[in-house]
Design a protein that fits this description.
The radius of gyration is 16 Å and the shape is globular. Strand 7, helix 7 and strand 8 form a beta-alpha-beta unit. The protein is built from 8 helices and 8 strands. It has a single domain, classed as TIM Barrel (Alpha-Beta Barrel), CATH 3.20.20.70. The chain has an 8-stranded parallel beta barrel, surrounded by 7 helices. By secondary structure, the protein is of the alpha/beta class.
């Protein structure tokens, strides 16, 4: 995907509508890429590469393959160096990762830097972030060291305090996506609800529809 010189808030919000986070390489790199392509056809608007057990070289190969196959933005969890080298659109950083301000000094112009936001004490660290991933909203087996669950309303209030486009993370699925969007989130970020399903295209389409309905519910 070609990267804009600058991401407008409107463009950023559209990219956050349905974020599919990678789960594993059970079917190899080609299999993951095929699942991601199916998810894109269904309406996924961003793919986040998160493979905690992969080596740096393997993560680089996966990211390059996804960047080459997809038209939606690809961002890499934690590793700004791999994201830049692979030609990804950006990086998503947690508060224990490379500081956001420091990351800005080593990434090119137009490079997305997203940040995880789990509590109000982290708001001061967001000055250079393009968007925030707020959560966890609910308990999730995908992240064993997750912070306490916030619930939809508390998470939405926290996200609004950041004054940035915001995507919901943690225990998000088709059953709660509409309510999450109705509460003010720009989108949802999921692992199990798209790329871990037997039909990522159908799962992505259902989530995208739920988010759209939730946005309409606000008015």
């Amino acid at each position: 995907m070609s990267k804009p010189a600058r991401w407008s808030a409107e463009t950023m919000r559209a990219a956050l509508a349905v974020v599919a986070i990678t789960d594993d390489l059970r079917d190899g790199i080609d299999g993951l890429v095929a699942r991601a392509m199916a998810a894109e056809r269904g309406g996924v608007t961003m793919v986040q590469v998160r493979l905690k057990d992969a080596s740096a070289r393997e993560l680089l190969r996966v990211t390059r393959s996804l960047v080459g196959a997809l038209t939606v933005p690809v961002v890499v969890n934690d590793r700004a160096d791999i994201a830049v080298t692979a030609g990804a659109a950006g990086v998503h950083l947690g508060m224990s990762d490379l500081p956001i301000a420091l990351a800005r000094t080593v990434v090119p112009a137009g490079f997305l830097v997203g940040a995880s936001l789990t509590n109000a004490g982290e708001l001061a660290e967001l000055d250079d972030a393009d968007y925030v991933g707020v959560g966890p909203l609910f308990g999730t087996p995908s992240k064993r060291d997750a912070a306490p669950a916030l619930g939809i309303e508390q998470a939405a209030a926290l996200g609004r305090s950041s004054h940035r486009p915001m995507v919901a993370i943690g225990g998000v699925d088709l059953g709660n996506a509409r309510a999450i969007a109705a509460a003010g989130f720009d989108g949802v970020s999921v692992i199990r609800a798209v790329l871990s399903t037997p039909d990522p295209e159908a799962a992505a389409r259902a989530l995208r529809d739920a988010v759209r309905v939730g946005v309409r519910d606000r008015s």
